[in-house]
Amino acid sequence: MAFVNPKTREVQIKIVYYGPGRGGKTTNLEYIYNKFNHRIKTDLVSLKTHGDRTLFFDFLPFDVGKILGYDVRVQLYTVPGQVKYDSTRKLVLRGVDGVVFVADCMAVVRRKNILSLKNLYENLSDYNKSIFKIPLVMQYNKIDLAEKGIPMLSPQILEKDLNAQLKAPSMVASALTGLNVIKTMKKIIMLTMPTVQGQLK
Amino acid sequence: MALVVNEQQLNDIESVLQNDIIDLGVSCVVLIDMAGNILASRDNGSKKHDIYSLAALAAGNFGAVSAMAKIIGEDEFSLLFHKGKSENIHFSKIMTEFLLVTIFSNEVSLGFLRLKVAEAVSRITEIFSANGSP
To answer: ipTM of this complex > 0.90?
Structure first.
């Protein structure tokens, strides 16, 4: 749930990057952090295992400037993608305002994408939120691997698997090279802002 | 949907944080919601902490500890406190949605702090309830 502070004229919005393990959620945040670190006053907070897998979440606060006279601070979070961390994943979703679903384009993880999306649906339901109503952007990540001859899922297949009913805005991306990473972030902010705009006076 | 607290409530909450907590000798106090958003904060000017990261971690930590409590059959743990060599952190839940995070040095006794935090929590609860929000 976003917080509007009428005194400091600041809005805080929580965006969560969700998706299967090793899908590139943390890499999205790392790219954003490296690209804008001159504008970001704090470090990227990462709670990870010794094997560099996300254990709890990554966190990056990001000032996006003024909207209707309010300073908008977007708090970007990732969840741990591994199936076994469902309880911590659910904790990170608490109070979420918008979700980026980072799907992995590699053909070998097709089923994991679908299971992760189902898990998002269930975990949002536990907070009485609907995946059909929450601002959502689909990102089909690792498109750069196509050049290396790795079997990939086409955007059409991913759309059919994940987005046929949701019909959320979607885009291919490469978190590693930065392709569409910022575009994804801008899109989710643009979708999320109208949900709080009514509260801004 | 957004959580909106009016300006008067925020002024009253900041007065409570200043008068009941900071004036006690505490270095920093932050009122957050369980999503990790900061509603209000006060410090004594001695140190600058990254309170945004602190808020995200505190909300996550509190959620994790509450989940652990449920696993062992407790509703929640009554004392949430981390002790360092010179700085300590104390967490106190307010209603169901908020958390008061207090950072203090060893010069402040834990018992006295808990007493004052409990008073502040009760005042903040009144402030929220009096205006029918949140």
So the answer is: no
